[in-house]
Structures are given as structure tokens and as C-alpha cells.
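Report of the visiting student (M.T.), summer placement. My assignment was to run the structure pipeline on a short list of targets and document each run. The first record concerns Multimeric flavodoxin WrbA.
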Amino acid sequence: MKIIAINGSPRKNGNTGILLNKALDGAASNGAETEMIHLYDLNYKGCKSCFACKLKNGNSYGQCAINDEISPILKKIKEVNAIIWGTPIYLGSITGEIKSFMERLIFPYLTYDENYSSLFGKRISVGLIYTFGVNEQRLEQTRWKEFLENNEFLLGRYFGKTESIFVTDTYQFDDYSKYVSAAFNASEKLKRRKEVFPEDCKKAFELGKRLVRIR
Ligand SMILES: Cc1cc2nc3c(=O)[nH]c(=O)nc-3n(C[C@H](O)[C@H](O)[C@H](O)COP(=O)(O)O)c2cc1C
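After the run finished, the C-alpha cells were exported:
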């Protein structure tokens, strides 16, 4: 049983990275082999629309023809049993890096047939961890969650059953007093970090554990 985590945050030990590590700990506690990929360590771009992955009888049919630092990871994902994605929310959406990675991973498996069927060839378990600076109340005033449903839809369709967790009101700065940040109440943020974030970590641990459960 192997699970791979894809960290779409530039901060390896930020909120997203911590939660992904907890999810991997959960998977390891169920006997899985784990691996973490930090996308910001790698040089790559999104899909270039070359369509080599769609070319009839082409050498790269169903796979990405671009050769760069994510090519080995795209290949590796064919061998895993579970994948867990983590991304901070930037301007209401996933980070550019994770979006570019998804384009490169998903588009080659998306067949332009009548059903847009999947060429991935097997079903794996998929988890998604989103981290938000805003609190739940603010989040409910936006349409971000609605927009994010498309990730679950795509991953569910092309890879397998997908489960998401939403972690809100994250601790963004080491010291709030050093930054212009009147939008936040620093002491409430700290309280939340101490009291609620450990619960979020437990949820991530349990998610990781579930993703590698033998079905
Ligand atoms: C460029 C940028 C844009 C952001 N935009 C949003 C946003 O639209 N909504 C939100 O809730 N938080 C936003 N945040 C806050 C982060 O999503 C949040 O603090 C997240 O947990 C950070 O993850 P990290 O600790 O893994 O870096 C933004 C942060 C940055 C740096």
C-alpha cells in the first residue's frame, strides 16, 4: 500500500505541510509506505496544449509528453494506491502550482471520447486538504467552496473516491504584531492555533488512515 502527498504550499512546514504530514502519519499507522512531494521544489509548467497525449497511435497517447521535474512524479502516481493533495487557498482558489500539476496529471487521462472516460486504468483513494486564512463565517459568505467542488469532481471521475477537508482560520504569521493585519484578531488566532488546529491535525491523521484502508 503506497500513498503520495502533493504539497501545493510554498511553506514546507506551514499549515498545509503540517496537515499533510499528519495525514501521512495516519496512513503509516495503517502500514502504508508514504512519500511527500513539495511542488515548490520543482521546476515545471502547466499543460502546454501540445495534444501529444491525444494523438491517435502517438507514442505519448494517454500520458504527458513534456519532460521536466514532475515527469517522474506523474509516472509514480500510476503505482500508488492513494493520493492526498494539500493546498492553501490563494485568492479564493488552489495555488497556481497545484493547478498546473493537476493539468499535467489529469488531462492526459481525460479521453476526448463521448464519455470523457478515464485512461488511468484503476481506482485509487483521493484526499484533499484545503487551508484557509479566513474563518468559517467569512468562508460561508464566499462561493469558494462551491468553486472547489470541481476538484473533487475531476479527481473523483479520473482517479477514485475523493474526500475533502477544509481547515479554516489558520495561523499565518509567526508574530501578528509585525504585520499590517487588522483583519485578524491576533489573540483569537493564537487561541485557535492552540485549541482547534490540533483537532484539525487529528482529522488529517484520520483521513490519511482511511485513504489506505484495504477495501
Ligand atoms: C497569496 C496569498 C493569498 C491568499 N488568499 C487567501 C484567500 O483568498 N482566502 C483565504 O482564506 N486565505 C488566503 N490566504 C491565506 C492562506 O490560504 C492560509 O493562511 C493558508 O493556511 C496558508 O497555508 P500555509 O501555511 O501552508 O502556507 C492567502 C495567502 C497568500 C500568501
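Residues 9, 11, 14-17, 88-92, 131-134, 170, 172 surround flavin mononucleotide (CB under 6 Å). The longest strand covers residues 82-88. I thank the supervising group for their guidance throughout the placement.
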